[in-house]
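Q: Given only this backbone (327 positions), what sequence would you predict?
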């Protein structure tokens, strides 16, 4: 009969490889496997720590971290998972943590979570802070093998919170650099991975949201609505997403009480399928208004009715021109 025993092995080799065009670099990589027991009862666990890991290939410029946009960066990662025989049904609990993770234009900090491991897969959950104070990302998921195919499903959410102070939108997503926002924001979404196929969805909800450009080129107030995205991490929305707003100001133009139905094609490109709002005592409606290249190229159909002529001429800065009536 065996007494108490313990065995351990440690590897501290860093990793720098390229697989299928993807670069994987792990710095200060330490893996320790440990087994202990008494008699025939065995307890095994795996500890993994690294200071920094980068995975992916560059697809553009990064944000505040200076990392390329197509790269996932993980800093100060720790992971402990118990060993469970593949043929068994027992469940053992492990944990993971990271100081920060940046990917797809989003930066997370104080990442923590747990893993419940079984022989065929497991379930996991976690949470992390966003770079905007008051916003937190949480997730739950499971992974299992059916036949020879592994499937992983993840559901995530950012509980809606109200941001009182004007905040740099780049802290929420790098693609929103140049904007300030305040008000209520939240999100939900899911990711499913089966073999080499990935399906993802997300929905961003805003309430009484205020947005303005840092250069004071425009100001948008009182935005309410939800927009769905079906191709993460690309910025491409579902079609016909409705929003309402209280006021939109740019230059001498002020629009009020607006309804906008739009779809986002990608960064700097979107289609206003239809819109109606108040302006200069009347109404303006838009149809098929497509904006490209951040607004430098705009085309579409605009119709106005009941517009007071005097404020229109004033906004156009036609010196020496006066008028009354409606258009």
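A: Predicted residues:
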């Amino acid at each position: 009969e065996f007494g108490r025993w313990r065995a351990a092995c440690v590897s501290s080799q860093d990793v720098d490889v390229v697989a299928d065009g993807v670069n994987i670099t792990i710095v200060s990589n330490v893996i320790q496997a440990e087994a202990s027991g008494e008699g025939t009862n065995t307890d095994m666990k795996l500890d993994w720590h690294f200071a920094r890991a980068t995975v992916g290939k560059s697809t553009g410029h990064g944000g505040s971290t200076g990392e390329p946009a197509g790269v996932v960066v993980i800093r100060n990662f720790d992971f402990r998972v118990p060993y469970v025989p593949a043929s068994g049904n027992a469940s053992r609990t492990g944990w993971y943590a990271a100081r920060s993770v940046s990917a797809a234009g989003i930066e997370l900090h104080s990442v923590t979570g747990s893993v419940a491991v079984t022989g065929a897969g497991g379930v996991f959950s976690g949470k992390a802070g966003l770079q905007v104070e008051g916003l937190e990302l949480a997730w739950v998921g499971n992974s299992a093998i059916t036949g020879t195919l592994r499937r992983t499903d993840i559901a995530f959410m950012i509980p809606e919170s109200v941001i009182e102070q004007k905040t740099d939108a780049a802290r929420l997503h790098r693609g929103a650099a140049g904007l300030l926002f305040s008000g209520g924001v939240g999100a939900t979404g899911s990711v499913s991975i089966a073999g080499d196929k990935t399906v993802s969805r997300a929905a961003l909800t805003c309430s009484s949201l205020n947005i303005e450009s840092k250069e004071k080129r425009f100001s948008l107030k009182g935005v309410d609505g939800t927009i769905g995205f079906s191709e993460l991490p690309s910025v491409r929305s579902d079609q016909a997403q409705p929003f309402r707003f209280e006021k939109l100001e740019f230059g001498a133009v002020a629009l009020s009480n607006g309804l906008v139905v739009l779809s986002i094609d990608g960064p700097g490109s979107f289609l206003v399928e239809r819109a109606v709002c108040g302006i200069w005592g009347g109404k303006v409606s838009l149809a098929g208004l497509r904006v490209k290249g951040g607004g430098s190229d705009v085309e579409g159909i605009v119709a106005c009715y009941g517009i007071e002529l005097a404020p229109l001429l004033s906004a156009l800065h036609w010196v020496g021109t006066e008028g009354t009536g409606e258009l």
